[in-house]
Amino acid sequence: MGSSSHHNQEDVLKSADSTAWFRSYLHGGTSSLISTLTTIITFPLYKTVFRQQLHSTLVREAVAQLFKEGPVKLFRGVAPPLLMRSLNGTLLFGLQDTFLQQLSLCSMPTLPRNALPALAGLGAGVVEALLFTPFERVQNILQNSRNDSRLPTLRSILLKLASRPLASGYYTAFLPILIRNALGSSLYFGLKGPMSNTLRSYGCSPVAASFTAGVLNSVVISLPLYPLSVLVANMQARVDGGGRGVKTSWQQLWAARQHRLTLLYRGGFLVILRSCVTWGITTAIYDQLERHSR
After folding, report:
1. What pTM was estimated for this model as a whole?
2. CATH number of 2-293
């Protein structure tokens, strides 16, 4: 009788764990899906920044380029970030929660408990880079107007990349993406909880605290990691430019920016602003869903 009761308790615990596991993926996907509205609204802004990253142009010059190309081409390349954004939240929040649960079960006395969310975020960021580098590669090719005549359709781009080795095809610039995503995810999940709790202790409502934590987190992450995004954009934008190594690509980029940080960070303010809005909304929605489910 006691053995049967013990087995029943184990079954209940396993069921609860699987429900919590599924819930984190569902809430991550829902929050990201809702925040994709900001992706659509701010896509022209993102495309303006991409032109600045690629050609080191001023805002007015990038806007003039897009205006000249017309409204039809303005949203060329929006499909990959929309798909990536929806899947990204599902996997990022879900995997981080899964890794966190596994790490919590491990006995690691030398590792502080409050470091576990950041470590789980690091693991989620690595998986994210592995899965989404091809999406980013396709997106950057689509957004580069110099590819329009040679590769006019998404299918033509996919076929071209498939014909190349992975390192110079779909996985061009994998190393800087891996570093950026792993560090970014680790910082996000490591700082999100403490920031939100601190803001709530000062009287902020739970939703306001989550939104502000998402915004502040985005600033902390985006500012130092922005040069990696510029490097990735320049490495991935050309289909035939995937053979150069990271070191060579960085040297060429730094020389093209006249060895000046101000030119390297051109367009950075717009990226950080867009990221703040997106991650503020995503964090607020995710935390609210988690609170309601508990």
Report:
1. 0.80
2. 1.50.40.10
